[in-house]
Specification:
Elements lengths: L1 H39 L1 H4 L3 E3 L5 E4 L45 H18 L21 E2 L1 H6 L1 H8 L3 H10 L1 E2 L10 E3 H10 L3
Antiparallel strand pairs: 1-2, 3-5, 4-5
Helix pairs in contact: 5-6
Length: 204
């Protein structure tokens, strides 16, 4: 009987502990952290959504997206992001990842060569002017940023497509260049979606 009582008591303690910690860690902790996020950092807590002039969400500042037509061709009136290897059409949040191809891989070298020629022709510049991030995907395949060099490379093409002064578009790019985090981490960068929304705002 003593062993049975001990077993019953131990089981009861285990069940009570499971219920208490489920309540504390599964419910209370979640509610508290969610509440803090909504109060302190509501934009980040809700997905860092970028909205259009009507207030409708058009994407996230944390995830890149393509600016192409129905056939997958880049649209000249928009700034274009870097390539993406995430999913079949790129920028698929459910298939985040790179190509896993090494720098000496023949397929990667061929792809980079072709991309450089296409981007140069698309923007009316020399292939030597095309920066590295314009022809290579990020490790996640979801990077929403491009280098200032790649953004500035696209200025004349975007300005011509929208019939805007190149100086106006260039100033917009320069205003959207984000500096290194804390002044020394990472590289200066431009968020493509935010830049394109600001570009659209010039005509709205």
């Amino acid at each position: 009987m003593s062993d049975a009582r001990t077993t019953l008591r131990t089981t009861g303690v285990a069940l009570r502990a499971m219920l208490v910690f489920t309540l504390l860690l599964g419910v209370v902790y979640t509610v508290v952290v969610t509440g803090i996020g909504q109060l302190a950092l509501p934009w980040q807590a809700n997905g860092s959504l970028v909205r259009d002039t009507q207030g409708e969400p058009v994407g996230s500042a944390l995830i890149g997206q393509s600016f192409t037509d129905a056939k997958g061709n880049p649209l000249p009136q928009w700034f274009q992001p870097r390539p993406s290897a995430a999913g079949k059409t790129g920028y698929d949040g459910t298939s985040s990842g790179g190509s896993n191809l090494g720098p000496e891989n023949k397929d990667l070298i061929t792809a980079i060569t072709e991309r450089r020629a296409q981007i140069a022709a698309f923007n009316g510049v020399s292939p030597d002017e095309v920066p590295a991030d314009a022809v290579t995907a990020s490790g996640s395949g979801l990077d929403p940023h491009i280098s200032p060099a790649y953004a500035l490379l696209q200025v004349d093409r975007v300005a011509a497509a929208r019939d805007l002064p190149a100086a106006t578009v260039r100033a917009l790019v320069e205003a959207h260049i984000q500096s290194r985090d804390l002044g020394f981490l990472g590289e200066p960068r431009v968020n493509v979606l935010e830049l394109n929304q600001a570009l659209q705002g010039l005509e709205d």
